[in-house]
């Protein structure tokens, strides 16, 4: 096979090219296992690009003049070594910029290296960089916070800009990487920013995309906003979060400084990664380097659109798989990242996710992996080969988790119907679905709902995320006739269910003080991906107004961290030690045996009352300590209970007997 000749002959036959790219013969002849990109050294830099269909490749070197002007210096033709175009340029090129000029079928285009590790503002030029110069003081001695088990994780999702951009955040560098680590920030006596996270007690900070993305002009200091699910340069950081987006080194230094200080504060960092699609295929680096290879196609040669964004990457093709894996490992080793959340994980083939897990385990088994166990549109990837929720069982004992939309919809109602209500808000028919969520969607002989996780660390339990309405706004929509006090009770009940269920809990930032997203005309915003700061910011006034809710979340998190009964490591432990006693439309009562797992709470009774009315419950087994109700959480005991307890409507209780 001579792919250059074939590609030239069949360039208008997309179906034929697709079949060739997917063939074992093509993989055998053209797969490359080595290092790609600009491989920097003080004495020389090696440039290496994989494009077996190109006739010629040159690397063009530029020098920046002023803020954003680039002067061409020279170019070098790269040698074609069976599809690997390689060349060496002597001297120290650190700080210089580069692009490749690629000739495919006599169509010549300049392209940014997909393996570039730094870029100019707005990602127009790759940057040659000495990464050692980007390490902050103490980086070599960075120590990750301890994580004994994946289920010890408590994930808090936020957007870099949202978290500190509010005028009342008390943060100097608002909306920036280093703004996330400013210390001792307060507003009217309450902690904000990093201090808020430390006070809340979460273990992992999940950041919405921080790689270089397309839809924010980094030259504009304000006014543009996006969540960032529109990838441009995967191995580079987003410049709008840097104090100096014109300096490719600076954003790296600041991001590392952020990670280092989060680790010092006891917080691990999760990256939200979006390898499943690009912003625009035609202008993507991938498509300019080897058209039609990196993306899945339909039988007619048009792009498959499982992302809902016009395209989806072909993770099953060996060099796409290599790129994704190389990128994940690069962030792991260079930036000390502690976890990865995969956008639309269902678009990754199962072997791809397995390989990522295997390779990460070689570096650090405590790195967590989770993602959306679904797709965003019609995909040509076979259903049985998608890393979706229904296929999580195929990962065996691997720590690869999926978001649990079952418990999400069970507690508050279907996210695609704003009026639909869940268990906690008066909906009916959720008993078994909620029981399944309580046991982390693992197999349990008292749960009559389809299980999909082999182990609890494969389940992410949550009630809200950046997508759809916030939890509070969902309650406002579905319960617009209910008083605010009642909705607060429901919110607390939902939080209790999520944070006392087995699996890995996940909190949307601001949920702990009833985050809302409101447009200037007073409408609640469901999809705020580009709605701007006024809609998306965390309003720190709400922490003051709803301090009681925040305190409840904080105590729930502390309770979970203190007691293994809420975070068992294995499915077998859950099945052995959790026993369901009653399950109705809006009422669940179960018991936990803590003796077998050596918890200080040797026996516990957990009750969730989603009814509006008070329920009376007879209690056997002698005297119990009430440690949680709708108003407070106190492990020492709020009161003593014997024989009978009245449970307020829309409230949870936990009773315990101690060793």
From TrEMBL:
Family matches, as SMART domains: Aamy (SM00642)
Species in which this protein is naturally found: Clostridium thermobutyricum
Domain of life: Bacteria
Ranges for domain Glycosyl hydrolase family 13 catalytic: 157-560
CDD domains for the chain: AmyAc_Pullulanase_LD-like, E_set_Pullulanase
GO biological process: carbohydrate metabolic process
Name of this protein: Pullulanase, type I
Record GO terms (molecular function): hydrolase activity, hydrolyzing O-glycosyl compounds
Spans traversing the lipid bilayer: none
Taxonomic lineage from the root: Bacteria, Bacillati, Bacillota, Clostridia, Eubacteriales
InterPro entries for the chain: GH, GH13_cat_dom, Glyco_hydro_13_N, Glyco_hydro_b, Ig-like_fold, Ig_E-set, PulA_typeI
């Amino acid at each position: 096979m001579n792919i250059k000749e074939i590609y030239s002959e069949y360039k208008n036959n997309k179906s034929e090219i697709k079949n060739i790219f997917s063939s074992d013969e093509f993989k055998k002849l053209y797969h490359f296992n080595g290092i790609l990109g600009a491989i920097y050294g003080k004495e020389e830099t090696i440039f290496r690009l994989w494009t077996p269909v190109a006739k010629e490749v040159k690397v063009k070197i530029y020098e920046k003049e002023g803020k954003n002007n680039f002067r061409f210096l020279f170019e070098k033709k790269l040698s074609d070594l069976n599809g690997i175009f390689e060349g060496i340029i002597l001297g120290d090129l650190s700080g210089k910029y580069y692009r490749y000029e690629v000739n495919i079928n006599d169509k010549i285009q300049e392209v940014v290296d997909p393996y570039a590790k730094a870029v100019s503002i707005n990602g127009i030029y790759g940057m040659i960089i000495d990464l050692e110069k980007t390490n902050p003081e103490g980086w070599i001695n960075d120590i990750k916070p301890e994580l004994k088990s994946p289920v010890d994780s408590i994930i808090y999702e936020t957007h870099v800009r949202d978290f500190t951009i509010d005028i009342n955040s008390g943060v100097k560098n608002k909306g920036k990487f280093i703004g996330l680590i400013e210390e001792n920030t307060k507003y009217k006596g309450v902690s904000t920013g990093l201090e808020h996270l430390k006070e809340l007690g979460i273990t992992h900070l999940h950041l919405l995309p921080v790689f270089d993305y397309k839809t924010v002009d980094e030259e504009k200091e304000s006014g543009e906003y996006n969540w960032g699910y529109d990838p441009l340069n995967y191995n580079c950081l987003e410049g709008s979060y840097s104090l100096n987006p014109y300096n490719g080194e600076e954003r790296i230094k600041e991001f590392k400084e952020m990670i280092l200080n989060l680790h010092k504060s006891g917080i691990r960092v999760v990256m939200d990664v979006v390898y499943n699609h690009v912003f625009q295929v035609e202008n993507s680096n991938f498509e300019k380097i080897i058209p039609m290879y990196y993306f899945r196609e339909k039988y007619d040669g048009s792009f498959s659109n499982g992302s809902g964004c016009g395209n989806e990457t072909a993770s099953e093709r060996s060099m796409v798989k290599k790129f994704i894996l190389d990128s994940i490992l690069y962030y792991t080793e260079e930036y000390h990242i502690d976890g990865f959340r995969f956008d639309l994980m269902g678009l990754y083939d199962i072997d791809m996710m397995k390989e990522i897990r295997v390779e990460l385990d070689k570096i650090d088994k405590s790195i967590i992996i989770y993602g959306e166990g679904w797709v965003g549109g019609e995909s040509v990837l076979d259903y049985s080969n998608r890393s979706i929720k229904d296929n999580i069982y195929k990962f065996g004992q691997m720590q690869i988790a999926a978001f649990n939309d079952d418990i999400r919809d069970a507690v508050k109602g279907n996210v695609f119907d704003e009026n639909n209500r869940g268990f906690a808000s008066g909906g009916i028919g959720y008993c078994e679905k909620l029981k399944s969520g309580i046991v982390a969607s693992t197999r349990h002989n008292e749960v009559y709902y389809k299980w999909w996780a082999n182990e609890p660390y494969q389940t992410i339990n949550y009630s809200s995320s950046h997508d759809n309405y916030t939890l509070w706004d969902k309650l406002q929509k579905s319960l617009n006739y209910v008083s605010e006090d009642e909705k607060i009770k429901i919110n607390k009940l939902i939080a209790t269910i999520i944070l006392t269920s087995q699996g890995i809990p996940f909190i949307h930032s601001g949920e702990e003080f009833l985050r809302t997203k409101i447009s200037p005309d007073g409408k609640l915003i469901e999809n705020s991906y580009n709605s701007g700061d006024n809609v998306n910011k965390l309003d720190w006034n709400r922490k003051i107004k709803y301090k009681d809710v925040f305190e409840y979340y904080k105590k729930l998190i502390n309770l979970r961290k203190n007691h293994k009964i809420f975070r068992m490591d294995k499915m077998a432990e859950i099945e052995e030690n959790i026993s369901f006693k009653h399950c109705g439309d809006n009422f669940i009562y179960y018991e936990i045996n803590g003796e077998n797992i050596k918890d200080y709470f040797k026996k516990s009774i957990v009750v969730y009352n989603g009814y509006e009315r008070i329920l009376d419950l007879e209690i056997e087994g002698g005297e119990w300590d009430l440690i949680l109700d709708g108003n407070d959480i106190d492990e020492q005991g709020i009161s003593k209970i014997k024989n009978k307890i009245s449970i307020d409507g829309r409230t949870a209780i936990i009773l315990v007997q101690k060793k």
